[in-house]
Design goal:
With about 450 residues, this protein is of the alpha+beta class. About 30% of the residues lie in helices and about 25% in strands. The structure holds magnesium ion.
């Protein structure tokens, strides 16, 4: 069962003396009408139209054809009204309406349109105009004579080629769409779209989940941009899809529609051929089915779900950042919590860090010993060249102290003493300890004495 949620707003704008727009919120039917005509005729036309639309639709079968019939009836009633009162002669109105209807197959959203009020659909991040304007500038655009920018400033941009109430009969565009959870529909009079660009409209619709907030913001923006006309906005959200389940809002990149708006179905053709599904009727627009995502409780307001999603996302990102910071700190501690004895410019140097560095942590010189590499015991030179790791600075200093060779020439005749510390054999010699600098004070420094006596 498809569920809808909606918001609406209308405003006289900054220039006009009266508000000739009307909107209708009578779920599952929603509409916007923009009246035109002298004196109060425009207000009458739009009011008569939406009242007739509602009355006829609610008496009808709730089908696409029922919506089309209601639009035809609205046209007839506005026209008849104009015939009975000379002050109202020539009045007319636009009408754009959307209704949840029994379609084939299943529930569908039917959109009826006459004039230059518009219906848009926001699906994912993509906003598209669903209706086609019945205006002179739209015809010029279609013929390639002007572009959208030129149409926006064209002196005859207000001239309509179709409107309700001008003739006893009118052709009504009917568009059928399969509702999908997360779809957001916008109905609006031209007072919005002449002031606010589609990109800004789309950003508001994406940003403000509450439909009342979105409609209020759009009206405010139109006024801030000039408000040269009445502004009316209705937003309708699909908060549960036709499968009776609420699914996660599909990602925009999975829901790209074919280029261009759906082809409208001319109701005159539909009626003559016995219905929207009859021979000769264009195929209704059928969109991809709903995605399957995490389920929410039936009836849960759509507006709360993006907020929950956002909080979860923030928490997840924060957790990832903390873990990365801890990991970086751990790597830094590992990389820097060590010393090694190495060589720099042929001098034995004690570095803080690890040989070769760890990631972006490179070793730094802690102590320059002043000992040339050539003065290191040959057995330890390769060890020093490759970086002899020690647990502390003092241990590294002890190592250097122990492996440095010193040649002393004496003139005494005393017994030559060769002491290797530690251990006593040069082939297995290692510093006394890698952790206890006491070796530097207790172990005799190795010396090689040559007797000359
Ligand atoms: Mg208008």
């Amino acid at each position: 069962m498809t569920e809808l949620r909606w918001g609406s707003a209308t405003d006289i704008g900054m220039v006009r003396a009266t508000n000739q727009d009307q909107f209708l919120v009578a779920t599952p039917l929603f509409a916007v009408a923009d009246g035109m005509g002298g004196h109060a005729a425009g207000e009458v036309a739009s009011k008569v139209a939406v009242d007739a639309l509602k009355a006829v639709f609610e008496r009808g079968p709730g089908t696409p054809q029922g919506l089309a019939d209601a639009a035809h009836a609205a046209n007839r009633q506005v026209w008849e009204h104009a015939q009975t009162d000379p002050d109202l002669r020539g009045m007319g109105t636009t009408l754009v309406a959307i209704a949840l209807v029994d379609g084939s197959p299943g529930e569908q959203l039917a959109i009826a349109n006459v004039g230059d009020s518009r219906a848009y659909r926001l699906r994912g991040h993509s906003l598209e105009q669903v209706t086609t304007d019945h205006s002179l500038v739209q015809e010029l655009i279609d013929e390639g004579q002007i572009n959208e920018e030129e149409a926006a400033v064209h002196p005859q941009r207000h001239v309509l080629t179709r409107a309700l109430g001008v003739d006893p009969d009118v052709a009504v565009d009917l568009i059928l769409l399969t509702p999908m959870l997360g779809d957001r529909f916008l109905l609006c009079s031209d007072g919005l779209i002449r002031e606010v660009g589609d990109d800004l409209v789309a950003s508001v619709l994406r940003r403000l989940a509450d439909p009342d907030d979105a409609t209020a913001e759009l009206v405010n923006l139109a006024k801030e941009h000039g408000g040269n006309d009445n502004i009316t906005v209705v937003v309708v959200d699909v908060v549960a899809d036709g499968e009776g389940t609420q699914t996660q809002t599909p990602a925009a990149d999975t829901l790209e529609l074919p280029d261009g708006p759906p082809d409208p179905i001319d109701v005159g053709t539909v009626a003559a051929s016995g219905g929207a599904a009859g021979p000769g009727a264009p195929e209704p627009i059928v969109d991809a089915g709903p995605s399957t995502g995490p389920m929410a409780a039936p009836g849960q307001a759509r507006s709360t779900r993006p907020r929950i999603f956002t909080l979860r996302l923030v928490a997840f990102v924060a957790a990832v950042v903390v873990l990365l910071a801890i990991a970086a700190a751990g790597v830094g501690w590992y990389a820097r919590d060590s010393y090694f004895v190495g060589v720099k410019s042929n001098e034995v140097v004690i570095f803080k860090g690890r040989p070769g560095g760890v990631l972006w942590f490179q070793p730094t010189v802690a102590v320059s010993t002043g000992v040339a590499l050539s003065h290191v015991e040959p057995a330890f030179q390769s060890d020093v060249k490759s970086g002899r790791q020690e647990g502390s600075l003092s241990a590294a200093q002890a190592f250097v102290h122990n492996v440095e060779t010193t040649t002393t020439t004496t003139t005494t005749t005393t017994t030559t003493t060769t002491t290797t510390v530690p251990p006593s054999t040069t082939t297995t010699k290692t510093p006394a300890t890698t952790t206890k600098p006491a070796a530097t004070t207790t172990a005799p420094r190795k010396s090689t004495s040559t007797s000359t006596g």
